[in-house]
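Researcher: Sequence recovery benchmark, item below. Answer with residues only.
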């Protein structure tokens, strides 16, 4: 009898946990979809404002980060359209695309480093690494 109750409780708790993960995935998908509906300039403005709040940027820094974000978002939009053009993509094209994205990310980090103070940049890096770590942790949990 105790084993049956324990088994029922365990099954119920697993069901509740699965539902909350599904709900989180639905919300995350809806949020990504909303961001995709925005123009590159709008996405850039939102990202720049988030950085301004998080890093306590000055007005001059905010303007520079906004320009940098606009350039980044426009490049990302162009690459996104290229990848979604419906054509079959070869391994070499995929490699070139990834390489181009990483080059742009390196350039953006260099420019951000010149805009931000050392403390602001350290906080930015810490946050970015934390987000990547959380993302990897969540992916491992999904697989396991």
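Model:
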């Amino acid at each position: 009898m105790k084993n049956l109750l324990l088994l029922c409780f365990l099954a119920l708790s697993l069901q509740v946990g699965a539902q909350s993960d599904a709900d989180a995935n639905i919300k995350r998908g809806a949020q990504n979809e909303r961001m995709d509906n925005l123009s590159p300039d709008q996405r850039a403005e939102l990202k720049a404002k988030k950085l301004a709040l998080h890093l306590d940027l000055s007005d001059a820094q905010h303007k520079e980060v906004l320009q940098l974000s606009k350039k980044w978002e426009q490049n990302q939009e162009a690459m996104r359209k290229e990848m979604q053009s419906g054509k079959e993509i070869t391994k070499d094209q995929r490699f070139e695309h990834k390489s181009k994205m990483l080059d742009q990310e390196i350039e953006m980090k260099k420019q951000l480093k010149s805009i931000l103070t050392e403390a602001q940049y350290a906080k930015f890096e810490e946050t970015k690494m934390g987000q990547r770590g959380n993302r990897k942790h969540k992916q491992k949990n999904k697989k396991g």
